[in-house]
Amino acid sequence: MKKIIHTDSAPKAVGPYSQAVDIGQFVFCSGQIAIDPASNEVLKVDVVQQTKQVMKNIEAVLKASDLHFSHIIKTTIFLTDMNDFAKVNEVYSSFLTAPFPARSTVAVSGLPKGVNVEIEVTAARV
Fold it and tell me: Taking a C-beta distance cutoff of 8 angstroms, is the pair 23, 1 a contact?
């Protein structure tokens, strides 16, 4: 049975989607951007600070699903500038521990609200 995940500890959706969908052993989290959930405002900061907020938002959605970072099996990182890869990777890896999930990183021409990074994750109860 499909269960919609929502928490006030993560940003409200900026469109017609859910923060996450829980189905069976899997939780599919929508992409998170650097929005402060308290103010629901985009953080106009550098990519390092944006990535930290993104990871905190992911953590909040996972927690609402009774999961944590160790449950992530796949991530996709979207960057508006591939030159930010090393900075984003450093922050990303500070939130996760080995064994790391599978991951893709892609450059895109733009992201919602003009942010520099968006990350989506899939987690599993295993």
Answer: yes
Q: What is the CATH number of domain 2-124?
A: 3.30.1330.40
CA-CA distance, 29 to 11, in Å (whole number)?
12
Do 124 and 26 meet the contact criterion of CB atoms below 8 Å apart?
yes
Q: What is the DSSP string of 107-124?
A: E-S--GGG-SEEEEEEEE
Summarize pLDDT for 53-109 with one digit per residue, the tens. Answer: 999 999 999 999 999 999 999 999 999 999 999 999 999 999 999 999 999 999 999
User: Which positions ≥6 away from 56 have C-beta within 8 Å?
Assistant: none
Residues 6+ apart with CB under 8 A from 4: 18, 20, 21, 22
Domains of the chain, residue spans: 2-124
